[in-house]
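DM from R.C. (forwarded with permission)

"hey, sorry to bug you on a friday — could you get me a structure for this? deadline for the figure draft is monday and I only need the backbone to look sensible"
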Amino acid sequence: MIGKEEKSIVLGSRLETCAGFVRKGGIVADIGTDHAYLPISLVIRGIAAMAYASDINEEPKKSAQRNISLYGLNEKIIAFTADGLEKIPSDKVDDIIVAGMGGDNIASIIDRAKWLKNDRYRLILQPMSRASRLREYLFKNGFCIIAEKAVREANRIYTVIYAKYSEIDIEYDDYDIYAGRLEGSDPYAAALLKKQAGILLSAAEGCVAKGDISGSEYYKKLAQRLLINSDGGNSNDQR
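My reply, with the result:
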């Protein structure tokens, strides 16, 4: 067992950003936990009272259990093999973290846990790809994005989405799907917005090649809104 003076885990910027959204004193579920570094760190720092560490594969679960034992946290962190949230006790968890997966996979995990449609829970989601698909799923299914933060790790920029279920219908348009709650005043967010604008401009060129002028104009206008935000402007003025 590691002594108290040695109890520290340095998280990468993605997981550290996820940790920053966790509410203090609650119970956390980390889905796709891998080595369980995030829940271990949250418990050690007193952010989480306890945690569930779940992974779909057996080997990562075993690695998680070894690390949990190494830090003497067997009574505070429970590790197991499961597909998504299927073994998470809905009455004993507050914040759910799903990080390091594609946006479609994260959406599928949420969709299979119907009990998440309750505003007591907070979702902390870090898609490795297809963030726009994840945002669209959230909006269509009644989840609002409370906040969103861009983060750089290993020369790539990712986004971390903080969301909850809403009792009222979510108003959104295609700009919200592509930009979420990212603000161009943050240089990492600005870079993500510019990258997405570039993808949309390429789509506009593809429309021109197909003779779809209206489609091309649509993508160009949407890209322009993203570029305005990336420069610190207010995209809402372009709606």
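R.C.: lifesaver. Strands lie at 26-31, 48-55, 77-81, 95-102, 122-129, 143-153, 156-165.
me: no worries. The longest strand covers residues 143-153.
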